Structure formats: structure tokens, C-alpha cells
Amino acid sequence: MKPSERNFARRVDLTSLQLFVAVCELGSIGKAAEREFIAASAVSKRLSDLEAALETPLLHRHTRGVSLTPAGESLLHHARSVLFGLEKMQAELSEYADGVRGHVRIHASISAVVQFLPEDLGSFIRQHGEVKIDLEEHLSTEVARAVQEGAADLGVCNTGSVGRTGLGQLQSLPYRQDQLVLVVPRGHALDGQGPVPFTDTLAFDHVGLHANSSIYLSMHQAAQQAGRAIRLRMRVSGLDTMCRMIDKGLGVGVMPQRAFELMRGLGELTCVTLADEWAVRRIELLARDFSTLPVTARLLVDHLRSPAE
To answer: What pTM, to 2 d.p., does this model score?
Structure first.
């Protein structure tokens, strides 16, 4: 290592990198300070010292929080890689300790969170009580991006909506399969029908999810291919809200069948199977490299896959 490289390593400490990443993720020095249990003034001082050590501005500070400069974007990428490597080192060394300890960061789609992960993660924690799991819900495309950037160890999402380009060099393993259904009020014109093509639903108002959600993207593509438009009355942020709106007569909606079964008590609702091929979806596990995951994360992957095999 050259003397200049040694000096650089001494000028940049890991705590400052961790605080920098926290500020970037939360978009606010105050929120980062609260999460990391440190005074906001101390966080601000460390960021200023980091900028001085690197001799370049990293953040734009404004009244609503902070945003990254181009140099900050580059540092965030490298900082996450450094911290990821340290976490992996710690996890691998923990193999020599008694018991399994560790920390696994998971980003997952709403479908995976609602349908499968509560039971699967619950049974894992009962076996490995010292393992800490951080679970965040995101759109499928954002899940893949988080794993690529090292912000998450594992991703769980519908990879069909992400596409091969969106997955990049990520590895994937099968986890679950789900079936999309049309949720309607009891007594609706489609109540009691057999599997229906999605195009038959376009005569009715829809309650939809976020425009970039995998479900809505599939619906939009199917409508475009049929030369039709979705009569979207409103967008909602969650499947429970969708059920409540449908129960009040505001439209019909598409959601995974198992999620609907878990929420059946939210109103006088029923579901109709969709006949389209895209209505059967693969939910997969994502990682940069499964073989190099920390031991705790590898144990979790094995646990998540065991019921699916």
C-alpha cells in the first residue's frame, strides 16, 4: 500500500461512513441521528470532517434535509460495499462462536411480505433467537436495486416484473408461486364466474396499487395489448385498503389470492380467478452471490427455500 493510500485510510473512519450512509438513506441528519442514537450536531460534525478529509462536498444541505452531490453518490456506493464486506467478515467469524448470531437485511415486495414472510421469518427466529432481521417493504424494482447496491443482503420479489436487465448480475433462487385474482363485492356481475381473462374486467372501475407495482404494471401491459384502458378510479398503498374500497363499491381490484384469503374478513367480498398466464407469478430470492453470504443469511436462505422444494 502506498503512503498516500495509508493516509487516506486513516482519514476516513468507519463510524463516519456508517453515519453518512444513514443520512443518505433517511435524507435527513436529524432522522439519522435519532436512528443511530447520537446528537445531530455530532453527526453534522462528522460529515463536515469527512468532506474535509476527502476534499470535496458530499451533501447539499437544505431546509427539507439533504441530497447527494455526484461525489456523494460515488461515496455511498463504495461505503455500502465496505460496510457490507465488514458485516460479512463479522458473520463468518461468528461461525467460530457458540450459537448462531448475526444481522440479515431483507427488502421484499408487498406480495411476499403479506403472503409468506411473516410465517417463514417467525419460524426461523424461533429456531435462531439471537439473529436480528431487518425487513423493509419496497417495489420489486427497488428490491433488486437495493441488493445490487448492497443496501440489502437478500431480496424477495416477483422477478418477472423486474426483467433480466433489471436483475443485472444478481443470482436468484425459487421461493414461492402465487396466483393473482380479481376481488369483487358479493353479488357483482363477475361473482361466481369461472376463470376470466383480465380484459373482461376492463368494463368496470378499478382500485389499483402504485403505478410502479408489479401487479399494476402487468395489468397495464395486458390492457395495452388489448388496445383498452384501465378505468382506474383510485390508487391505494396497501392491499387491506384496496379491500375496504372495493367493499364500499368503489371498483374491483387485482391482488394475490393468498393475500385476499388472509384479508377476507375486511368486507363482503369474493374473488374470481384470472385466466391470464401473467396471473401466475414466481416470487424468488435475490442475492449478489448466495455462496458468499454471511453464515446467518445462508441459514435463512435454506430455511426460506425448504418449504418450496
So the answer is: 0.64
CA–CA distance, 3 with 144 (Å, rounded to integer) = 38
Q: Which residues pair with 234 in a beta bridge?
A: 207
Measured in degrees and rounded to the nearest 5, phi and psi for residue 27 equal 70, 15
Is position 28 within any domain?
A: yes
Q: What angle (nearest 5°) sits at the alpha carbon of residue 36, between those of residues 30 and 38?
A: 70
Residues 184 and 129 in one domain: no
Q: Which residues on adjacent β-strands are paired with residue 108?
A: 137, 156
End residue of a domain, out of 28, 50, 81: 81
Domain count, the chain: 3
Rounded to whole angstroms, the Cα distance separating 63 from 75 reads: 23
CA diameter of the chain: 77
Asked if residue 147 and residue 286 are part of one domain, the reply reads yes
The answer for 90, left when phi > 0, alpha when psi is -120 to 50, beta otherwise, is alpha
Per-10-residue mean pLDDT of the chain, 309 residues long, equals 57 86 91 90 91 90 90 91 80 59 88 92 90 90 89 89 72 93 94 91 93 89 93 91 93 93 83 93 93 89 79
